[in-house]
Amino acid sequence: MNRVIAFFVLICFLTACNNNDRQDTPTETTKTPDNTPPLINYSVIKAIPHDTSAYTEGLLFHDGQLYEATGTEPEMPESRKSMFGTVDLATGKITPKVTIDRNKYFGEGIVFLDGKVYQLTYTTKVGFIYDAKTFKKLGEFTFPSKEGWGMTTDGVHLIMSDGSSNINYLDPNSFRLVRVLGVTDNNGPVSNINELELIKGYLYANQWQTNYILKIDTTSGKVVGKMNLDGLENDARNKYPGAEVLNGIAYDSTNGKVYVTGKLWPSIYEIKFPF
Q: DSSP string covering 226-260, please?
């Protein structure tokens, strides 16, 4: 009788242990948080004409005037130039202020800072400096990156991209590299950072070969938002089949307006979104 009771007690104990083991086992796998940068919604205010021969490399406002920088190579059509100039917002026509030798240089981004204009070139590691009023050439400079792409400024530094995931801050006097901002998102480094614009303390960057404009935290380099401009590229290509990739973002700080375009696009679009 005692053996039977002891055996019964042992079975109950083992069953209880097994039940406890099952209760301690999680029923679901813990999910990791989704750190994908949120999409930024935007609306199109209007479209204005854009020169379809303009292979856009830079777009910016200075003193209420829209400027555009373009690039070209010798094998491209003669109508394309490596230059920068003012854009007529009614017609899209560019009035050149500076044109560089297309057989030597592929013009890239520009920026105004302290009464000067700085212009990058693509693979020659040469930049040009001009007077911001007369556009007379003042000199040349070299930069540490292998390539020059987009430019903007925080009022102190020249901020340039080179097609990698890094954004470089240069001293405008010595052109010494003073800071490198590595751009990352939930998948790691984000390459092909191109045309740049500083808006309300955040860097906005075209990502080359995509229709994304990325919103970048200037402290951490994290992409904290992104705009998908597929609709604008589709509209541009429907209007002009020769239109190429999105490139160009300009912010007019006097009225808060933002304009975007692309290489050989027939339109510049004024868009609105939360900064």
A: EEE-HHHHHHHHHH-TT---EEEEEEETTTTEEEE
127: nearest Cα among 103, 113, 114, 144: 144
Give strand pairing partners of 126: 142
Fill in the amino acid letter for 185.
D
Provide the CATH topology of domain 38-272: Neuraminidase (2.120.10)
Neighbour-count burial of 32, counting CB atoms closer than 10 A to its CB (0-12 exposed, 13-18 middle, 19+ buried):
exposed
In contact, 117 and 130? CB cutoff 8 Å: yes
The angle subtended at Cα 82 by Cα 237 and Cα 123, nearest 5°, is 100
pTM: 0.87
- Give 81-107 pLDDT, tens digit per residue: 999 999 999 999 999 999 999 999 999
Place of tokens 């021969």: 53
For 210, phi then psi, to 5°, come to -135, 170
